[in-house]
């Protein structure tokens, strides 16, 4: 991606999929395009992106392998959740200046017919939260942990990517429910944050060659809930420690998103199935808005209360400029971000 | 196992674990012993075994690998569900002649203090049913399918070992619930029985090299419930056909019970987890009496009604003589039985 134009009031920049990645996405897989700023017709409104959320699921959309959502077409804008301001409206329900949560993708401006928009309080001091702890990642953590994981006081909950947008919330809710919470994160700085700031009981560095033993030591009573958002070596370390009747919500597998083929053997599939059987474990995948869309209000009320009371903390990792989204996204898949990754596309 | 004594009124024969099997159990892994018939003390009763149930889970008890139940010790009698008659009683709740469901194992006689016994109607025309369609296998089928599988009318249900004690009941209940039911069984004779007698919509031979394609053809709408009691190549064929929100109750993995090490690669564990995620699938292991013991009455009432109305059919494969239990059990793990495998230990 070569062009490095800055956001402006005259032209619409958008970042489109230039080619399907082979393995890890590269800068060349994205392309920055420029076009006229579109004008809203009757019933439409024009959105100006303030914040763009970058999330691991986007890697799946770049591939044309079968998945839960259709792939992005070559030449189409990358999709993504945004916080946007209404610039101009020909829609009865919206006025210029309104703040909305949208799904308008990696671009400066977008037209909308209002479908799928959620109005935000224009006085909201930190509207980016609607993309993080109060949005999709927080909602994913809340429903996956509470509805599938069903943690009970005194149980042990393990969560990987523990300093990330989802994992950080999973662990804090589990602590609020009276669980022992062990995080896994990349590096000592993130681990310190997870324990000192977020209040987890322990946090282990997934780079460590001794992770399996360290995890066993940190979970002397075994593992009752493993919130799966990573896969790979972390899951291998978790598997032998799972307790009878453990629950495994599966919301992501970031360790596998760049896989080009099945990894070498031995084949551990039967070992997993046998573990599910002999320990009567429930393992369940979910896609947050598809499976729990009708419970967003319940989540928002609970999370807003916890935030206001200072019971849930969060951290944002903000990158300035839409033109920097590809590099930021590539870094996300490598674990280079620290907290919820956002692109500030225009000043709020 | 050399001694081939017949059952008699003077001595108690029992089959004990002689050695832990390496791979498939062999005749030498069992030993027939003979001892005095024990006499009941106060509060005890003496049971005489009429029928012994042989079930795949017993393979797990022969190993000392960690599992959901403690292993049988070397020299200890093999465990197993039985239908027995009370020969003598020093227990207030039981009289000589009572018929009971017990867990007295591979032996002619056993003492009991009454714990865990279930009285059967002495006029029951076919008491062996208490070990099959009205017992643990039928209960396993019922709860696994209905509580974890939750089949809806019009959905497609696939079950392996379809002519067996569990699979045959799973498929028939799924038909009663209005599902399309596809069985998988070993050989054309079993497949014919499954379709012609049990009323499944289709049945495929798992020996076929073209099983994956045949299964895809038999499930044009995909698979909504896969009742897992086999594992191995059948599961590999099922995996790509699973629908969004499919459910997989796991009650057994007979294809793996004799495994001595993990099979060669590629490692398909991540593929399974990814499938659970992108299709939001629930996969859950269960152990029937541990997880659903309090719902046996509900099951019994429903199944008794279906049997009486002729809506559920069953088939028993009865072997005569306790001394033949080891060979019959070895055959069970190879799929040589046809229907619920029982040993007739003494005339009813």
Structural account:
Chain A is globular, with a radius of gyration of 21 Å. Chain A starts with 10 loop residues before the first strand and ends with a strand. In chain A, 26% of the residues lie in helices and 24% in strands. Chain A has helices at 58-61, 136-149, 167-176, 188-196, 211-218, 232-238, 269-278, 288-292, 296-308, 325-333; strands at residues 11-17, 30-36, 45-53, 82-89, 99-102, 109-112, 118-120, 156-159, 180-185, 202-205, 223-227, 242-250, 282-285, 316-320, 340-344. Chain A has two domains: 11-132 and 315-344, Medium-chain alcohol dehydrogenases, catalytic domain (Quinone Oxidoreductase, Chain A, domain 1, Alpha-Beta Complex); 136-289, NAD(P)-binding Rossmann-like Domain (Rossmann fold), CATH 3.40.50.720. In chain A, strands 3, 4, 5, 6, 7, 14 and 15 form a seven-stranded mixed sheet that branches. A six-stranded parallel sheet of chain A has the order 10-9-8-11-12-13, sandwiched between helices. A two-stranded antiparallel sheet of chain A has the order 1-2. Chain A is an alpha/beta fold and 348 residues long. Strand 13 of chain A pairs antiparallel with strand 13 (282-285) of chain B, so a sheet runs across the interface.
């Amino acid at each position: 991606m070569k062009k490095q134009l800055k956001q402006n009031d005259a032209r619409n920049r958008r970042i489109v999929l230039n080619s399907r990645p082979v393995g890890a996405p590269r800068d060349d897989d994205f392309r920055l395009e420029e076009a006229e700023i579109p004008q809203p017709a009757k019933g439409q409104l024009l959105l100006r992106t303030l914040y763009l959320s970058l999330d691991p699921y986007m890697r799946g959309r770049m591939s044309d392998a079968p998945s839960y959502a259709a792939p992005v077409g070559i030449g189409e804008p990358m999709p993504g959740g945004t916080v946007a301001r209404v610039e101009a409206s020909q829609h009865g329900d919206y006025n210029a200046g309104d703040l909305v949560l949208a799904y308008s993708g990696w671009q400066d401006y977008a037209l909308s017919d209002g479908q799928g928009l959620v109005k935000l309080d224009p006085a909201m001091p930190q509207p980016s939260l609607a993309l993080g702890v109060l949005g999709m990642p927080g909602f994913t953590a809340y429903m996956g942990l509470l509805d599938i994981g069903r943690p009970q006081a005194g149980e042990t909950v393990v969560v990987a990517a523990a300093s990330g947008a989802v994992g950080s919330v999973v662990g804090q809710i589990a602590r609020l429910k009276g669980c022992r919470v062990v995080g896994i994160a990349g590096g000592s700085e993130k681990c310190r944050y997870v324990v000192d700031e977020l209040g987890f009981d322990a946090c282990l560095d997934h780079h460590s060659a001794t992770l399996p033993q360290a995890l066993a030591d940190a979970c002397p009573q075994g593992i009752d809930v493993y919130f799966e958002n990573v896969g790979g070596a972390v899951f291998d370390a978790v598997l032998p420690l799972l307790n009878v009747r453990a629950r495994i919500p599966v919301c992501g597998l970031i360790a596998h998103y760049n896989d080009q083929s099945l990894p070498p053997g031995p084949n551990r599939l039967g070992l997993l199935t046998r573990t599910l059987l002999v320990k009567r474990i429930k393992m369940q995948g979910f896609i947050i808005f598809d499976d729990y869309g009708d419970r967003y209000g319940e989540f928002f009320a609970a999370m807003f209360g916890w935030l206001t009371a200072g019971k849930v903390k969060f951290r944002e990792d903000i990158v300035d400029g839409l033109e920097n989204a590809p590099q930021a996204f590539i870094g996300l898949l490598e674990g280079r971000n620290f907290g919820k990754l956002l692109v500030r596309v225009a000043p709020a």
